[in-house]
Amino acid sequence: MARNIVWHPFTQHAVEPAPTRIARGKGAWLETSDNRRILDAISSWWVVTHGHRHPAITSAIHEQIDKLDQVIFAGFTHEPAEKLADKLIHFAPRGLAHVFYSDSGSTAVEVALKMALGYWRNIGAPRTRIAALEHGYHGDTIGTMSAGSRGVFNAAYEPLLFDVVRIPFPHAGREQQTLDALERACREAPLAAFIVEPLIAGAGGMLIYGAETLSEMKRICERHGALFIADEVMTGWGRTGTMFACEQARITPDILCLAKGLTGGSLPLAATLATSRIFEAHVSEDRSRTFFHSSSFTANPVCCAAALANLTIWETEPVLDRIAKLAALQEAGLAALADDPRFENRRRLGTIAALDLKVADSGYLAQAGPLLRAHFLANEVLLRPLGNTVYVMPPYCTTAADLRLVYDAIRSIPPLT
Ligand SMILES: *Cc1c(COP(=O)(O)O)cnc(C)c1O
Predict the structure, then answer these.
(1) Residue 64: CB within 6 Å of ligand 1?
(2) What are the backbone dihedrals phi and psi of residue 185, each rounded to the nearest 5 degrees, phi first?
(3) Along the chain (417 residues), what's the average pLDDT of each consecutive run of 10 residues?
(4) Helix (H, G, I), strand (E, B) or coil at 203
(5) CATH ID of 57-316, from 3.40.50.300, 3.40.30.10, 3.40.640.10, 3.40.190.10
(6) Which one of 16, 188, 299, 375 has the fewest CB atoms closer than 10 angstroms to its CB?
(7) 233: Cβ below 6 Å to ligand 1?
(8) Which residues contact 289 (CB under 8 A, 6 or more apart)?
(9) What is the dihedral of CA 268, 273, 278, 284, to 10 degrees?
(10) Which residue's alpha carbon is nearest to atom 5 within ligand 1?
(11) Nearest of 395, 415, 416 to residue 406 by alpha carbon
């Protein structure tokens, strides 16, 4: 029972098969220790953008580790962190001016929420009310679970979670209800911040909404002085067709959360970007206004070097062209399933494609998940449906032939009864 020494995430050890042991990865492909190949069609939980082991990223990691592996980031700094901050500000929506590093999407969001509350306290007008979008997912720490939608995943921790104002999701045709609810929430009592996943709720089921609605939500927050936090942990780095989803709505959030693809998915690193208004509120002779947050590995030099290499790839390789080509392939894959009556709600945003398996009763969903994963693995494909939602989110180097495997595997889903 050696496998039970390692406790895996989101894994029910009582019923799930032993985990697949991976030994190597290259491009869009993983290889098991017994030499089977598996196409990484969910980018290893949405992090790998250009493909596994992009040579520019691996050599940057090698070079950096030979110079400096780790250093305290309070009272000390280093070139990779400084260069990376400059580049992030250059690429991010105009108006963001400061970069705070941490190590995961969850911590990037925790930092964002703390910055928001710190801002209001430090300017002498304390606000603590947070609003969030229904079906949102922002991480698995107590704070980020509070902002995320509630369900079986966090029921046990409910007593520790703080209340947020839940704004209904802008489903197609019901956008006005979302905007009205946000407007009402702002009028009821001042909001410290409103946090959203721009254009698509990822873990909530790959639910897509329009750029128009995103920019309207931003406008409402602006009008009422609520800070707007864009959680681009999943949507960032080209996933939605542009480097950041906010670009499509032509908005600059007050706070932007980045992680996952920041290093091309090679190493853990996160960044929370803020406007100068928020930074300046924390700059004071009064030391109690300091931003009190750190992680041991804040701005780890090797992770920063990997992220810098990622940005160099964006500058020197036709990444947006690759994304556009992959998006077209995804669209064609979905279209080929158009007359399959087992699926509904085919949808796509940038490189992300999703469709829902029609199921009679949702109690049986829990069993469908492991069955579907086993079916895909048997077909050399790593897919991990969210409930009855099958989604495909591959690295940008995925070829037409690779993607054909994925859609063949979806087409050949066996009866699940
Ligand atoms: C994955 C995700 C997070 C959490 O990121 P971790 O690195 O897993 O902590 C936060 N927000 C969104 C939108 C995500 O998709």
Answers:
(1) no
(2) -60, -40
(3) 79 91 98 98 98 98 98 98 98 98 98 98 98 98 98 94 98 98 98 98 98 98 98 98 98 98 98 98 97 97 99 98 98 96 97 92 69 96 95 98 98 85
(4) coil
(5) 3.40.640.10
(6) 188
(7) yes
(8) 118, 122, 281, 282, 283
(9) 60
(10) 105
(11) 395
What is the side-by-side strand order in the sheet with 37-40?
22-26, 29-32, 37-40, 381-382
Q: Count Cβ neighbours within 10 Å for each residue of 252-279 and write b for 16 or more, e otherwise.
A: bbbbbbbbbbbbbbbbbbbbbbbbeebb
Q: In whole angstroms, give the CA distance from residue 147 to residue 318.
A: 36
**CA of residue 393 to ligand 1 center, whole Å:** 15
Give burial (CB, 10 Å; 0-12/13-18/19+) of 34: exposed
Q: Is 234 near ligand 1, meaning CB less than 6 Å away?
A: yes
Tokens 């009855």 — which residue? 388
Give me ligand 1 centre to Cα 108, in Å. 9
Residue ID of nearest Cα to ligand 1 atom 11: 138
CB atoms within 10 A of CB 384: 15
Q: Is 259 in the pocket of ligand 1 (CB under 6 A)?
A: yes
What pLDDT is attached to residue 375?
96
Q: Does domain 2-53+318-411 have CATH number 3.90.1150.10?
A: yes
Give domain limits for the chain: 2-53+318-411, 57-316
What are 291's two structure tokens? Answer: 């931003």
CA 173 distance to own-chain centroid:
25
Beta bridge partners of 208: 200
DSSP character at residue 290: S
